[in-house]
Every structure is written in C-alpha cells, then in structure tokens.
C-alpha cells in the first residue's frame, strides 16, 4: 500500500505528466506524418507495375518486421551503418510514422 501512495508523490506525478506529454507529442506527430503515407495504399492501385511493386515491397516489409525491431534498426542500425544518429524521440517518430503508413 505504501508503494501506491508514493506514486502520488509530487515528484513522481511530475515525471508521469512529463512522460504523458512526450507520449502525446510522439503520437500526434507520428499520426500527422502517417496520414501523408496513406497515399501508398491509393497509389498501389492507380499507377504502373513498378510503383505497385515498390509499394507492395514496402508494405510487406513493414508488416513482417515487428515495431521493436524497427526501433532498433533506426536507432542503432542507421547509426552504425550510415553514421546517422537519431535521438530517441526522432527515432520513435520515424518508426511510428513509417508503421502508420501501412494499410
């Protein structure tokens, strides 16, 4: 019972509020960029064979690989392979935006 009461400590509530703000910002930014990616589903049936193939490969790759693996690929893999260093928040925005593009 004492652990539950310490959750409502002013210091802990501040941290929880900060985490909630970060989560909301990450979600809203990712949703915004995901709406742009919704065109992939529409382009898939409209344009030529090569565009359809590229869209299909992208969509299947995103579906097959779990989100946590994509987070590791963007955060650690791009840094070691291409010397691209993303912060944790930016890596989350990139991954959740790409994941939101799928159908």
From TrEMBL:
Protein name in UniProt: Amino acid ABC transporter permease
Entry's localization field: Cell inner membrane
Entries under InterPro entries matching the protein: AA_ABC_transptr_permease_3TM, ArtM/GltK/GlnP/TcyL/YhdX-like, MetI-like_sf
SUPFAM superfamilies cross-referenced by the UniProt entry: MetI-like
Regions that span the bilayer: 20-40, 61-78, 84-101
Record keyword Membrane present: yes
Source organism superkingdom: Bacteria
Topology in membrane: Multi-pass membrane protein
Protein keywords: Cell membrane, Membrane, Transmembrane, Transmembrane helix, Transport
